[in-house]
Structure formats: C-alpha cells, structure tokens
Amino acid sequence: MKLSILLIYTGGTIGMVRDKITGVLHPFDFENLLQQIPQLQKIEANIDTISVDNPKDSATMRPGDWQELGQLIFENYNKYAGFVVLHGTDTMAYTTSALSFMFSNLGKPIIFTGSQLPIGDVRTDAMENVLTAMQLALLQDGVNSLIKEVCLYFGGQLFRGNSVTKISSEDFNAFASPKNLVLATSNIKLKVNKSLLLDTKKALEFNPHLEDSVFVYKIHPAISRVQLEQICDFINFKVLILETYGSGTMFLEDWFVNNLQKLIDKGILVINVSQCVFGSVDVLYSASKYLVDRGVVNSGSMTLETVIAKSMHLLGKKMKNEEFKSEFLANFAGELS
User: Fold this and answer.
1) ∠ at Cα 233 (230, 234), nearest 5°?
2) Is residue 228 a part of any domain in this protein?
C-alpha cells in the first residue's frame, strides 16, 4: 500500500517566474509549479497538494502565518505519513523553529524546502530539493516513519529545523547547522544519521499559541547610554534577547549594567545569545558569568532564530518567570546540542 504525502505551498522563490522583460520575480499558480516537476509522478506515493490561502514571499511572513501553517498540518496530521512544505528561504529557519515547538512528540516528518532560483530557471535547484525532501519524508523504519521531527532540507543536507540558519543568499548551499550535526546527506545514496534522529512514544501535542513581545538587541562597541535608556523606557517587551560577543561576553560599564538590572527587576526576561555562527554561550569568561549571576539566561548552543521562536512559544503559555527560565533551558525538540 502506497504512503500518502501532503505537499504544502506557502510561497517563496520556488514558486515564482521571472518576467522576461524586467527580470523581476512574480508568483505563479501552484498547479503550474507541479507541472514543472514531472519526476514527482515517479515517486512511489500518493501525493496530495495544497496551498495556503495567501502564498507570500517569506520576508513578509509573520507569526500568524506560522500558526496558520501549523493548524493546516495538525488538521491533516492523521491523513498522511508526512508533510513537505515549500517555503521561501529568507525566514524558513524561523518558521521551522516555531513549528518544532508547536508540535511536541511528532510521530512523522514535517520537512521544509525551497530554492535559490525559480523552478523555471535552467539552473534551478528546486527540483532536487523538492524530490529529495519527498523521498526523505517517505523513509520508513519498519511500520513507522524514520524521521519524526521538523526538518529543513536544502543543498543536499537535512537539518534539524530548530538548529539551522541561512548563511548565503548566493550559494545553493544556503543553510548550515553550525551548532548541531547534519541529520542526513544526499549524494548518490541517501545517508541518514539515525542515531541523531528524535524519537518518542508519547502522544502528539499541538500548541499554536505564540506571544511576540520579544525584542532583539545586538551588542556593539558604539552603543550609547541614551540609546539604551530610550529602548528600556519606550519599547514594550517581555523578553530582551542580547546578541553578545563570542561565548556570551560584552562590555560591563555601570550605566549598561544598571539599566539591564532595572529591566530584570521589572520582570523582563533577558536572554544571552552569541553573535557567532559557531560556538555557544558559556561562562568561560567573567563577563558572561557576571550576567548569569544577575539573572540573565544563557541560550547555550541555540541559534537566534530558535531563541526567538522558543521565547514566543513559552510566552504564549502564560507562565511565571521562573518557570519560563526552567522551560527555556530544557531540551524540547533537540534544539540544545
């Protein structure tokens, strides 16, 4: 008996066509997209297709779009062996992170993919990405799906959805998972690192509630006292994410530390995430330990995209600060390497 897969189109470069006169990309009909990939007919599966109500460039994606997509998958969860989502590359890592927290105890794959070039271009990477994502979603371990998590497939590699970041707007290898290992690679053969895959016997839980009261502040040498005070006084947020240097370090002048302490005293949650692509936040240096001692939460090996999505997910649960911190430090879906 053939397995059934749902192919979901959300928009992005993969579903666009280039204007012959201006060269500008415009979205086109999803049915036309499928006609561009006749090889899909050779895949041994029943493939159903659906488009979200308002396909869009992923740069315009908002948390409500994540919730709509999550709800669509949840409503169809029992009908299919897996899901492949076509998505624009610019915010794909944010969407995959968000869905990895919305869905707890997945028993089947949700694999995102897209392309750097439109599917109609001669050198497009779309066909390989879509076809391999489909094959990965169909992999079985006995009678169950082999992959049971939210993933992102791109450029010959399968990544955990909450450990990936976009690193290039020009290369076909547009994504990397710098703080986690690659789950699978596609060459002549598909090679899956089974020991890295998530597995659970628990029942599926779906929680689409998100709260976007999160503010990201990048630490840099030219930060001024007035600038920070204005942020603290006039911007409303419940979580402040500090993008710090290296393993979580930054300057510790009195005016900065005092303003940070005022935020913490008001009940604002402050999270420390590294600006570095590789490495993690640690207490190797006195500056990062100083922050921890004052209540700042270390994000460990999590990417910025994951820290944002996880914070929104936990805020959506309406929990107290101490519970938030405890839950934030817990490994929900393999986000902590």
Assistant:
1) 80
2) yes
Q: Dihedral, CA atoms, 139, 145, 148, 152, nearest 10 degrees?
A: 20
Pairing of strands 239-244, 214-218: parallel
Q: In the structure encoding, which two tokens stand for residue 180, read together?
A: 């986690």
| Structure confidence at residue 180 (pLDDT) | 79
CA distance 203 to 303: 27
Same domain assignment for residues 45 and 156: yes
DSSP letter for 127, please: H
Could you give the CA distance from residue 158 to residue 249 in angstroms, rounded to a whole number? 32
Percentage of the chain beyond pLDDT 70 is 93
Percentage of residues in the chain having pLDDT higher than 90: 63
Domain span holding position 139: 3-206
Provide the whole-model pTM. 0.93
Q: Which of 10-19, 147-156, 223-232, 251-260 has the highest mean pLDDT?
A: 147-156
Residue 153, beta-bridge partner list: 158
> What average pLDDT does range 188-199 have in this prediction?
94
pLDDT digits (tens, 9 = 90+) for 231-266: 888 889 999 999 999 888 888 888 998 899 999 999
Q: Which among 13, 124, 249, 306 is annotated as catalytic?
A: 13
215, two tokens: 């503010």
Task: Give the count of beta carbons closer than 10 Å to the beta carbon of residue 18.
Answer: 14
13 noted as active-site residue: yes
Sign of CA dihedral 278, 283, 287, 293: positive
Q: What is the pLDDT of residues 116-130, one digit of tens each?
A: 887 777 788 888 999
Report how far residue 193's alpha carbon sits from residue 146's, in angstroms, rounded to the nearest whole number. Answer: 11
Identify the CATH number of the domain in which residue 299 sits: 3.40.50.40
Tokens 């936990």, residue located: 314
Q: Return all residues near 332 (Cβ < 8 A) that are at least 6 apart.
A: 100, 101, 104, 310
> Is residue 337 assigned to a domain?
no
Q: At what angle do helices 225-234 and 254-265 cross, to 10 degrees?
A: 10
Say whether 95 sits in a helix, a strand or coil. Answer: helix
